[in-house]
Amino acid sequence: TPPRATAPTRTTCPYCGVGCGVLATPDGAGGAEIAGDPNHPANFGRLCSKGTALGETLGLDGRLLHPMRRQADGSFARVSWDSALDEIAGRLASIVARDGPDAVAFYLSGQLLTEDYYVANKLMKGFIGSANVDTNSRLCMASAVAGHKRAFGADVVPGCYEDLDLADLIVLVGSNAAWCHPVLYRRIMRNRETRGAKLVVIDTRQTASTEDADLFLQIAPGGDQALFSGLLAHLAATGAVDADFVAQHTSGFDFALDAARRLAPDAASTARLTGLAESDVSAFFALFAETPRVVTAFSQGVNQSAQGTDKTNAILNCHLATGRIGRTGAGPFSLTGQPNAMGGREVGGLANTLAAHMGFEPESIERVGRFWRAPRMATQEGLKAVQMFDAVAKGKIKALWIAGTNPAASLPDADAVREALGGLELLIVSDNVRLTDTIGGGAHILLPAQAWGEKSGTVTNSERRISRQRAFLAPPGETRPDWAIFADVGRRMGFDGFSFSSAAAVFAEHAALSAFENAGARAFDIGGLAQLSESAYAALEPTQWPVRHGEAKGRARLFAEGGFCTPARRAHFAAPATPRLAEALTPDFPLRLNTGRVRDQWHTMTRSGASVRLANHTLEPYVDIHPDDAATAHVVDNGFARVATARGACVLRVRVTARQARGQLFAPIHWTDQTAAQARIGALVGPHVDPVSGQPESKATPAAIAPH
Ligand code: SF4
Asked: Hey, which end of the chain has fewer CB within 10 Å, N or C?
């Protein structure tokens, strides 16, 4: 038994986008004692229940420890790394030669580290020659990304966590931060207690966060952009617009204001469109108008919508109009779901981004191609997640590599996704665990990836802060870092540019690319970190980007004095579209199914499910329903019900509660066919996406419920 370590390793929590610093002290028996890092600026020593329980999730039960290959009888047999990687390289090359590069795709994860993302993105977009790289961040933050780009010219969160400490008004939109970003929520509560900040929560359902709200607006599904359009009209009508900021630093204000006025000219019309009481609407408008230090923090209730980009822009419009952006205690704030959704966005791990926040403009393709010395650059956007799996179903994609995610459970129309996987010529899955719905869906080759605590690299949290994840456990079995697996396949395919010696070398190249021929036009620039030695990378302190060449540290806030990333350096007001939901209710499906998280589980529970303490918070999958709807459907509290949509059905425990709005159901997403209690909520969600962001509408699927 190795001796018990005395010095903790400073690392970062692998769960939500708060990105809390963690001190992990190995116990010498494969586990570790966990504490919050008092010196990490995201959490100053605090951890939520999930972070605190990390030490209970480090066991090897269910881990994938060796490369495996599917046999003719459907079983998996262990193979060597050389055999697995040679086969992958050879078969990918053959498929590209036969069907072209777009017959291949990678589907990645916000759980991957930035270095993993970087190498996968480079391999596909520079060397295989397709932009078919997408990620489960498409289900999480894509609408915020698209809204940021449309307004600011780049995917930039303008503020920082300290703004939540210093705001006088915090507006949470579509966010149950008390459960989903708990440590940030504690900062908000502390601000409320010590400084008297007000909290407004806008949500379709009552949650732990709404209990603390000074004003809770229980909005109708799809109502957000009407509410913020009404707010924009109110700000203009009451003289709250910062005319100088608008004139000097923005474009499109008059057009957007006209559209907002047509949609929701006053509190009464806003109330009609949102299902809210006019007095509540007026109270919110007045509070926002009279409070200069306001942060509007938004999350999946905004993003997971077929109009998520418009909703994002309706929020950004109100901050741009008042100049409340990038200032102390003021700004719009996208709460990122996953631990490294931001890092993935930074390297270009989305099908509509090339690399380092660059798009597919000819000059960017040329620039990135020259930097990578790439023989076969992708020349146009690839397929976003839902499109990608549709192309799999249609046989257009022949080979798919899925890393660190489980789309057969998490994507909309998940039954169709699982069926489509079975038709692939080659399905490669790299993961920590031996069995997922995706692996069961027809994987051919399994690659064992290192897990949290074993691997090293960086993640970026919601406030643009890059933090180190550091290894503190020996990698078990034959597990390898994801970046090294992708690089090894690149080398075996005969490509130069994949001889990285370490995660630090990958990070240095990523940082150098961000600064390459970037005279300040691109906000994402970490050129100041491109020359880090191995030891400096090892010791890297949590750092906010941008960190340009020659700068010692990053910047907490951006855009207070303009300097946006559009060609004219002006922010753009996007006019709101008329609110609508993707699917109408029908007599067969008369209720709206909303999906989301519970406090103590994460994604499909492959890590958090290992903790008995966490499991005890919510023992089984459930559906919340209002008492009136329960009576109509003849379902009873604590009984079982079959919840069905046009896509699929599953059986759930019923929780009858007046906290749930009439006409709506809520079910959590975590359970799968591999968990003790089975329920794949993704199979019930329709594949309707936002036309700009490609993000699916996961919170308003027409549904029916009946006793089981
Ligand atoms: Fe981890 Fe998020 Fe909890 Fe922090 S708030 S400990 S990052 S799950």
From this structure: N
Q: How far is the CA of 340 from the centre of ligand 1 (A)?
A: 12
Which of ligand 1's atoms lies nearest the C-alpha of 181?
A: 5
| Angle subtended at Cα 357 by Cα 438 and Cα 228, rounded to the nearest 5 degrees | 85
The pair of three-digit structure tokens given for residue 305, joined into one six-digit string: 């919508």
Note the pLDDT of residue 5: 60
User: What is the overall mean pLDDT for the chain?
Assistant: 95
Percent of the chain with pLDDT over 90: 90
Classify residue 247 by burial, with Cβ atoms within 10 Å: 0-12, 13-18, 19+.
Answer: exposed
**What pLDDT was estimated at residue 339?**
84
Q: Is 47 in the pocket of ligand 1 (CB under 6 A)?
A: yes
Cα–Cα distance measured from residue 407 to residue 418, given in angstroms and rounded to the nearest whole number:
8
Closest ligand 1 atom number to CA of residue 48: 3
Residue 182 — very low, low, confident or very high, per pLDDT cuts 50/70/90? very high
Which of 13, 209, 299, 608 maximizes ligand 1 atoms within 8 Å of its Cβ, making it the mutation to test the pocket?
13
Please work out whether the CB of residue 84 comes within 6 Å of at least one atom of ligand 1. no
Residue 575: how many other CB atoms lie within 10 Å: 18
- Is ligand 1 within 6 A of the CB of residue 42? no
- The residue contributing the CA closest to ligand 1 atom 4 is 20
**Fold exhibited by the domain 68-112+123-140+342-450:** Rossmann fold (3.40.50)
Interface TM-score (ipTM) > 0.85: yes
Region 142-335: CATH code: 3.40.228.10
